[in-house]
Design brief:
376 residues; binds pyridoxal-5'-phosphate; seven-stranded mixed β-sheet; alpha/beta; three-stranded antiparallel β-sheet
Length: 376
């Protein structure tokens, strides 16, 4: 397997695929239809909601199924903004573009004021700065659990304490952590969080949003009948069934999978002799599958294209940022110069890879580096 872009998306697992096929055949009716076929599909959805709630250790009535992390973030931030105290909102500079885009909309169309908290050089949110930007009229703070570019885990426990003390809501984008890092503590620290199916070997176009049931908010759209009025549109029953199967698989095997990923990371870094570079931000032992590397003085785009030419697929950052121009904002916010940030590549591993696979990738990168050195 020469695919090393699991942080962008994963192939669907066989179990999730089978669940998708079965639900497509047997539970195709609209869950809002009052006939028996509709009720049958609705029962499957409610079973999935209960199962997901058990896996996440949250109340089932707080879960809304969505089309993915992007939509979950949109609905969550609007919910918290409308339930909050005032017209000021706070996010970290390392957030995914879906969070940046919603807050831009809140600023431009709804008159909110936005504060963006920088990251430290270690890739975690600057807690001192966070404390200082929260104001009397702050509605919510949104901080991701795991960063999509370099895999750093944010200190949500401390962030939650700060938010509670200042009485502001806390949302966390958990798209890169769900299925990879234990979430049981996190779910009780936040008011809402987002997860996505395709990052955990489920189908694309499915996700979930959790909002604490005690929180009363005006939904994004009025007069909605699906998902308790929180989310509009016919439910993707096969997708939700397959997402739930993928979540069960990932959470049941979380420790085993992460031990394997750690071995892959260790082997990869040991084999990457020529680069002589350390992973950016991401702690060597941290349990997330992404790893960021700035390969000395070689443009990341060049390394990515040369890898591609040799059949190795990895990226230069979050897929949703590609085309926006420039290196990942996360790196710049950590104080990495624009020049160095342009040398960034993101490697992310999957559970079905072997040590030989990552040795092959390291050898490919070593070759690209050797060639580049010869050419200059
Ligand atoms: C941190 C983070 N949040 C949100 C998303 C968006 O999720 P989806 O692709 O399910 O819309 C992604 C996907 O790359 C992500 O990495």
């Amino acid at each position: 397997m020469k695919y090393f872009d699991y942080a962008a998306t994963c192939p669907i697992s066989e179990e999730a695929l089978q669940a998708y096929i079965k639900a497509s055949r047997e539970f195709f009716a609209n869950t809002r239809s009052v006939h028996d076929a509709g009720s049958k599909a609705d029962r499957l959805i409610e079973h999935c909601r209960e199962r997901m709630a058990e896996l996440l250790q949250v109340a089932a009535q707080g879960i809304t199924f969505t089309s993915g992390g992007t939509e979950s973030n949109l609905l969550a931030l609007y919910a918290l903004a409308r339930a909050g105290k005032g017209k000021h909102i706070v996010i970290s500079a390392g957030e995914h573009s879906s969070i940046h885009n919603v807050t831009t909309k809140l600023v431009e169309e709804e008159g909110y004021e936005l504060s963006i908290v920088p990251m430290t050089k270690d890739g975690v949110v600057n807690l001192e700065k966070l404390k200082h930007v929260i104001r009397e009229d702050t509605s919510f703070v949104s901080i991701q659990h795991v960063n999509a570019d370099i895999g750093t885990i944010q200190p949500l426990e401390t962030i939650s304490e700060i938010c509670q003390e200042k009485r502001v809501f806390l949302h966390s984008d958990c798209v890169q952590s769900f299925g990879k890092v234990k979430m049981d503590k996190v779910t009780s620290l936040v008011d809402s969080f987002s997860i996505s199916s395709h990052k955990i070997y489920g189908p694309k176009g499915v996700g979930a949003l959790y909002v604490k049931p005690s929180l009363s908010f005006t939904p994004f759209l009025p007069n909605v009948s699906h998902e308790n009025g929180v989310r509009q549109g016919t439910l993707n029953t096969p997708g939700i069934a397959a997402f739930t199967t993928a979540a069960e698989m990932c959470l049941n095997k979380l420790e085993k999978h992460q031990a394997h990923i750690k071995r892959l990371k260790r082997e990869f870094l040991a084999s990457l002799k020529e680069a002589g570079e350390k992973a950016v931000g991401s702690e060597f032992e941290s349990c997330v599958p992404s790893i960021g590397l700035c390969i000395h003085k070689i443009d990341g785009q060049h390394v990515m294209l040369e890898g591609n030419r040799r059949g190795y697929f990895f990226s230069t950052g979050s897929a949703c940022q590609v085309g926006s121009g420039g290196p990942p904002k996360m790196l710049l916010s950590m104080g990495i110069s624009e020049e160095e940030a342009k040398t960034f590549i993101r490697i992310s591993f999957g559970v079905d890879q072997s040590l030989e696979d990552v040795q092959g990738l390291a050898e490919c990168l070593n070759e690209v580096i050797r060639e580049r050195k010869k050419a200059v």
